[in-house]
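Notebook B, p. 112. Complex prediction, attempt 2.
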Amino acid sequence: MREPLISVRDLRVQFHTYAGVVNALNGVSFDLYPGEVFGLVGETGCGKSVTGLALLQLIPPPGEIVGGQILYCGQDLRTLPPAQMRSLRGGKIAMVFQDPAAALNPVFTVGEQMEMVIRQHRRVSRRDARRQAAEMLRAVGMPDPLRILNAYPHELSGGMQQRVMIAIALSSGAEVLVADEPTTALDVTIQAQILDLLVSLKKERGIAILLITHNLGVVAETCDRVGVLYAGSVMEMGPTTAIFREMKHPYTQGLLAAIPHAERRGRFLSAIPGSVPSGLQIPPGCPFHPRCAFAWDECRNEIPSLLPVDEGHWVACHLYGRGRR
Amino acid sequence: MKIWEYILRRLMLALLVLFGVSLVTFIIARVVPSDPAALWVGPRPTLEQLAAARAKLGLDQPLPVQYLRYLGSLLRGDLGVSIKTHQPIIQDLRAYLPATLELVLVGMAMAVFIGIPLGVLSGARRNSLLDHFSRLLAVAAVSIPTFWLGLLLQILFFRELRWLPISGRVSIETTLYQPIRTLTGFYLVDSLITRNWPAFSDALLHIILPAFTLATYAIGLSIRMTRSTIVEVLEEKYIVAARAAGLPERTVLFRLALKNAIVPTLTVLALSFVYSLTGAILVEVIFSWPGLGSYVTAAVLSADFPVIMAVTLIVTAFYVVINLLLDLVQAALDPRVVLR
């Protein structure tokens, strides 16, 4: 088995708010291998974005990582000195965001922003940085890079802005790309182009991509493996095909059943009853039990651990625990 | 170039504004019950003297003719003569305007280089010790009375510490032994150009206290303004993105965030700059600074209308030009701003 680039172990994140302590992540573990797209899916507020920010040690206050490890090349990022962490950011681990129009600085040209990042990570002259920036723009499929370099973000379309973001993220040779809902703000046709770009970057450059999304269609198209996140815990994790064909967890089943299908037109859309618990009050036991049709006493009292049910396929559910499968 | 067209158009508009201001000040000057002719000839005039003065000042003409004559002399660059001192106003302005501009510019530089960095750091480290300190400083700076602060600084830096001179633009020794040759009227600039180093350092020492006293209000203003816009800008996604790209905090704050946050601060500073041209009277009096504020105040007290009108026009011109500059700076800083 290959070595993972990033191993997240039992990651716990809390936000200290006036209303109380919000448990955003309650022991999240997963591996990210080079040359794969690992999808992190879940509803709004399940902790997807926090996981992405935690990888870069950029959890905004009043949030903080309170437990667990984030191992990159065997090194725990939590204990890394700030200066080293900063050179990893953008240098080895980069991130792109949901809304490229908001994630690009409106008052600097694309070229200025790219040069700033490139020269932060490499000792190159301004002219070389500019040349590298143009190459990177071409690599992400931008026609006429020289014109783009002199353009301001608001002069570009949403799809082009996101390509620029990806170019900036990868301009300094990042091995890991955290993509937080990279297509959510884009038109459907542009979405497909950006996803294709991510997949081709994975293939050509062998980078590992953590794709954070709530869109199962995006997961099916792009991800090699998927983790299903619910209320700050991983419910199920495995190869994309296994998750879509042999989903085990009642929550995953509910999510997939809720996807509208053309052949089921006219029928009621299936929905999971209830709503996502607030991070202030995570239910005891399995966090999903109040909404689960199969829940029994054990589910209410005991947190299920993530156990393998198949090759690389893990489920955190008492239905499959301790020889019950 | 399009930008030149824009500037030209704005300057034409400025002429219109100046025309309006000249008309209004002229009317006010004639409506207010005071007799310029009486002021011109001095106490206990004879009727003949008064009549002669009236004829000389053109006061015997109908009002429209008087205004047109006034406008005509303005167009020739003649601002008129002070009724009280019989001096050409332009000559007075040549002495007072540079003195005031020098004082106000140095004060504004202090506001920019003290207020803006403090505001940025304060906004970046909210509720830190530095933030509490600079917020307190900001409130104190905008609320402290100028005359009191000026006197306090004089007591501290002149009487107690003996570090800085108490008043004036230069010391008597400099006037006697190292006189500054007047080129621009800005002592710092003139002494620099003529390489008159003793005079330069003397002028520099003299300007510190009055400029700082004048700047306190602007410093407080720019701390508060910068802090609040920086707090807003730091919430933006592109700041997270910049940090995620590994850019150091210094770059994030003073380059990426500040360029997005600085326009409101520059706006209030610019307005406070123009206000100070005539509003610095207290500082000028305390530090015996021969500036525009004292000049126009004396004119107001003696109903010396030509002087008042001239200074009003000058200050209006500054307002118009500064506003134009502000718009140009804003357009230069933010590409989304379109000048039209």
